[in-house]
C-alpha cells in the first residue's frame, strides 16, 4: 500500500486508508487531509479494479463523485441526461492493458481512428463520419509521470462495441502486482461481508 | 408531436409563451453613451437627463468596485422614474454584479427581526466571485423534439447537439424544456448548458445556418460550430452571494433551503465563520469580493431603528452600494415624533448623495407612451397618441400608461387592430384617475358612508 501513495499526489498529503468487504467486493477508502476522498473497489478473487471514484470537497456546492473507472449511476431525475441511444464510454482494465469500451456504436468498422495527442497526453477516438469523438487521458499514467506513446494504442471493433487498449508499462504492472500480493494476504484470513481490514500506511 | 424548429404560426405561439409585461420591463439600461451623456431616448429611458447622468457616474463607481458603502437617495414626485432609474442601473450592471431590490415594508416580517431582514438584504448584495470547474455541454443544435403526453400533460423532449466532430442526443427534463422554449432555442443555434446549474446560454447562430433566414433579430451573432467534444469541463467564474453561502452552511439541507425561501434567522457565529473563510479565500487568490447594489424603494417606510442600523452597516468595508428611493417630502420619521426631509433622519441623509427626479414634460410623456405601446404590443393612431399624451399631462403618467392596454382591449372588441381616439375616450370615462376621483368625492361626500369624517379624508389627498 505504501508504494501507492505516490500515485495520489493530486490530493493533499498522506491519506488515511481503510478497507472493507462490501457488496462482495473489496472497497478501499482513502481520506485525504483536505477531506477529499478516493474509493476503489476490487473484485475479491482476482483483484481486478472494478471502480475508482474521487470526491473533492467544495465549499460552495454539494460535492459529487467523479468516476475514473467504472460507470457512475445515472441520475434519473436529472434535467439533462444522455439519451440511451448514445454510445457509452467505460473504462475496465485487464491485467495487462488499460482498456476502454465504447458500447452502442453502430457505425462500420472502418470509420474509427485512434491516435495519441502528445501535447495534451490524451488518446483521441475519431470517426470519419463525424458522429463520435472522445478525448481521454489515462490518470494512472499521469500520476506516475509516464508518457503515452503513439502507436501503442490498439483497437478492436465487434458487437457494436469499440475496445481501445493501451499496454500497462512495467512500473505500473509492478505496483499492481504488489497490491495483489497484499490482497492475497488479506484473503488468507478468509474475510466475510462487513469485515474491516487494517491497512498499513 | 410539435417539432419546434419548423414552426407554423399557431404552433409558434405555443412554443414561445407570452411573458407577462411588467411596469418596468421596457427598461434595458440607463441609455448613456460612451461619455456618460444620456441620449434623449435610449434603452427604454426617456428624458430625466440630470438624474440619468448622475446615475451613470454611480454606475461607474459600482463597476470599479473600489468604493464600498456609498448610499444614494433618488427623490422625486410619484411617476418621475425613480424605480426606472434603479432598474436601469440593475440592467446596466448585468448578471455579474448582485443587485437586490426590495421595498421598505418588506423589512417588517413576523418571521425575522428587522435587523435580520436588513442584514440578509445586505448580504444578498455582496457577491463572491469564485473560479470553479463545472461540466458544460456545448454544441450546435441540430434538432429539438418536444412531446406533450396526452394523458398527464407532462412534456418530454430530446435535443440533438453536434460539434465539428460528433453528435449526441440528450433527454430533457421539464425545467430544461421550459428554459429552451423561453430562450427560443432552435435548430442552428449554438448553445452552452451548465450541467450543474441547468442554465442555458445562447452563444449565437451557426455560420452554416446563416443563409437560411433573411430576417433575424438585431442582436444575432454568428459563431463557428464548436469543435471537439460536446461535454467539457470549463473553468467558469461563478458569483455567489454571501447570503447564499450563509444559508448553505447554516442548515443540513441548506442547499435546498435556498429554493424554498424559508431561511429564518441565521446564527451570527456562522456569519463570522463565513466572513473569515471568505477573507482566507481572498488571500489565497481563490475568490474576489464583489460589492453589489441594494435598492430599497419606499425607504420612508423604515423606522428609526432601521436607520440607525443602516448608518452602522454602511461603515463596513464590505458594504454594498445602497440606493434608496422615496417620493415623500417632509414627513414623519417612523418610530419618532419628528419630521425629516423624505422621512429620513439627517445623519442618514448626510451619508447620501441625493439625485432629484423631475416630472416629465409633454414631449417626454409622448415618447414614454410610445415605448410602452411597443412593449405592450399595441398599435395606436397618431390622434389617439395625442389624446393619450394630453391625458398624461393633465392627470398622471401612470394613469395614461394603464389606459394603453385597456384601450387596446376595447379596440379589439370592435374588431380593430389599432387603438383610435374613441377607444381612448371610452376607457377614460370608464376608469377614473385619482384627481377626478378626489374631486368626485369632494362633491358627493355627503352620499358616502361615515361622512362625518369629511375633514380627515380631505387631508389624505396630500400624498
TrEMBL record, chain A:
<protein>
    <recommendedName>
        <fullName>Protein DPCD</fullName>
    </recommendedName>
</protein>
<dbReference type="InterPro" id="IPR026224">
    <property type="entry name" value="DPCD"/>
</dbReference>
<comment type="similarity">
    <text>Belongs to the DPCD family.</text>
</comment>
<dbReference type="Pfam" id="PF14913">
    <property type="entry name" value="DPCD"/>
</dbReference>
From TrEMBL, chain B:
<comment type="similarity">
    <text>Belongs to the RuvB family.</text>
</comment>
<keyword id="KW-0234">DNA repair</keyword>
<keyword id="KW-0547">Nucleotide-binding</keyword>
<dbReference type="InterPro" id="IPR003593">
    <property type="entry name" value="AAA+_ATPase"/>
</dbReference>
<dbReference type="GO" id="GO:0005634">
    <property type="term" value="C:nucleus"/>
</dbReference>
<protein>
    <recommendedName>
        <fullName>RuvB-like helicase</fullName>
        <ecNumber>3.6.4.12</ecNumber>
    </recommendedName>
</protein>
<keyword id="KW-0067">ATP-binding</keyword>
<dbReference type="GO" id="GO:0005524">
    <property type="term" value="F:ATP binding"/>
</dbReference>
<dbReference type="InterPro" id="IPR010339">
    <property type="entry name" value="TIP49_P-loop"/>
</dbReference>
<keyword id="KW-0378">Hydrolase</keyword>
<dbReference type="GO" id="GO:0016787">
    <property type="term" value="F:hydrolase activity"/>
</dbReference>
<dbReference type="Pfam" id="PF06068">
    <property type="entry name" value="TIP49"/>
</dbReference>
<keyword id="KW-0227">DNA damage</keyword>
<feature type="domain" description="AAA+ ATPase">
    <location>
        <begin position="68"/>
        <end position="361"/>
    </location>
</feature>
<dbReference type="Pfam" id="PF17856">
    <property type="entry name" value="TIP49_C"/>
</dbReference>
<dbReference type="GO" id="GO:0003678">
    <property type="term" value="F:DNA helicase activity"/>
</dbReference>
<keyword id="KW-0539">Nucleus</keyword>
<dbReference type="InterPro" id="IPR027238">
    <property type="entry name" value="RuvB-like"/>
</dbReference>
<dbReference type="InterPro" id="IPR041048">
    <property type="entry name" value="RuvB-like_C"/>
</dbReference>
<keyword id="KW-0804">Transcription</keyword>
<keyword id="KW-0347">Helicase</keyword>
<dbReference type="GO" id="GO:0006281">
    <property type="term" value="P:DNA repair"/>
</dbReference>
